Amino acid sequence: MDFLLNINVQFYILSYLIGGIPFGLLIAKLFTGKDIRESGSGSIGATNVLRVLKETNPALAKKLAITTVVLDALKGVVLLIIAKLIGLSIETLWAIAIFSVIGHCYSPYLKFEGGKGVATGAGVLLVMLPIETLIAFITWFIVGKVLKISSLSSLLALCALILSSFIIHPDIDGIKTHAPIFIIAFVIVYKHIPNIVRLFQGKESKVI
Question: Which pTM does this prediction carry?
């Protein structure tokens, strides 16, 4: 058990446990008494918070959805900032980013179910690759405004981030590989498979 005394391992465990906190579920339950897993897409993310709660209280639903996005993004951001301040290596920072996203998508508090990883992924990537994440955000915003399909805007934003990362950072500083980005992207895309199927079937719901 000596490995648990290693500060890197401690941060990996913390990032997974904090990443797994289901803020969307907790916030919706606290303010409305609803379990958002039982309605809409069944996800614990901001989109489903908005989709489910707007039926009864649109104004509150929007506020809670925004709060969910912010808290889900901060789950990885806070730990990464602390890890940076104490001088942990770039390799460790990328691992913290990955574990935060995995924790959100496969929460230990929800029998290893969870959200789609978009907000948490955006948070950690904003710290690690700020310019690429800004490009992704612009893509997400434009596609979301035009098509009003949350999953499609998220997936296209992810594509924009990956493509721009190869242009802006052909060799990722300190690690010389895009592997961590692809791991995060794989987890997010995998969690979106039901959405992708519905997109091809023309059955994916719009967020209005």
Answer: 0.92
pLDDT tens digits for 120-129? 999 999 999 9
Residue 191 binned pLDDT confidence (cut-offs 50, 70, 90): very high
* Spatial CA neighbour of 97 closest among 4, 182, 164: 182
Query: Would you say 31 and 64 are in contact if contact means Cβ atoms under 8 Å apart?
Result: yes
DSSP alpha helices (H): ranges in 112-178? 118-128, 130-147, 150-168
**Token duo for residue 11:** 């941060």
Question: How many C-beta atoms lie closer than 10 Å to residue 143's C-beta?
Answer: 19
Half-sphere exposure in the Cβ direction for 119 (13 Å, CA): 27
Distances (CA, A) of 8 to 48, 88, 128: 34, 8, 17
Specify the length of the chain in residues: 208
Cβ atoms of residues 181 and 166 within 8 Å: no
Q: Are 63 and 83 in contact (CB under 8 A)?
A: no
Domain boundaries, the chain: 2-201
CA distance 64 to 61: 5
